Amino acid sequence: MVARVIFVIIVLALALQRLLELRLSRRHEAGILAHGGREHGADHFGWMKALHTAWFIAMLAEVLLLDRPFIPWLAAVAFVFFIIGQALRYAAILTLGPRWTVRVMTLPDEPPVTRGLYRYVRHPNYAGVILEIAAAPLLHTAYLTSMVFTLANAVVLAVRIRTEEYALDLDNQYRHAFAGRPRFIP
Questions:
Q1: 83 vs 136: CA distance, rounded Å
Q2: Is residue 183 part of a domain?
Q3: CA distances from 162 to 8, 55, 66, 104, 165 (A)
Q4: Residues 6 or more apart from 115 whose CB is under 8 A from it?
């Protein structure tokens, strides 16, 4: 029972974190647009929001309604990957600063950000999201949520990454700056 309550608190804290990130993103988006930036691929943003919302609901439903057991060793392994995911995401957010958004936004003729983790991989933020979506449900053995949403996230990210890389190459010479860098794993 205690593990279940802790899991619910973690999921709610993660949902609050995502809402605060959306707020930060909106501020950054306004700044980018004010400096001549533009948005790309707005049509898939709704799918991303739906995926994340459903992920939170599914985690809670699977644990609470299907009465999933708490398995300490699985939770420990999942926690390590979850923390790595959080670290990757926040390193990306801090590195991108006011250019970090949840929407695909570009500032034409500005060079792409190539410092921090971006020296080694093209998408540290998405690597973090991948780890979080897979690991967070496993903190309390919600393995169905982990599997289903890892696959759904892969589909959404395939579209998003293609859109983002095209937009960055169009406006920021991305392909030249990131030639030879892997997407997720250095």
A1: 9
A2: no
A3: 34, 23, 37, 11, 5
A4: 95
Q: Both tokens of residue 177?
A: 């700056």
Query: Sign of dihedral through CA atoms 107, 126, 24, 159?
Result: positive
> What is the pTM (predicted TM-score) of this model?
0.91
Contact 92, 126 (CB under 8 A): no
Tell me whether residue 167 is in a domain: yes
In a domain, residue 186? The reply is no
Q: Place 184 in a pLDDT band, splitting at 50, 70 and 90.
A: low
Q: Which domain holds residue 154?
A: 2-177
Per residue in 26-59, pLDDT (tens digit) is 999 999 999 999 999 888 888 999 999 999 999 9
The number of folded domains in the chain is 1
Question: Are the C-beta atoms of residues 115 and 97 closer than 8 Å to each other?
Answer: no
Q: Determine, yes or no, domain membership for 13.
A: yes
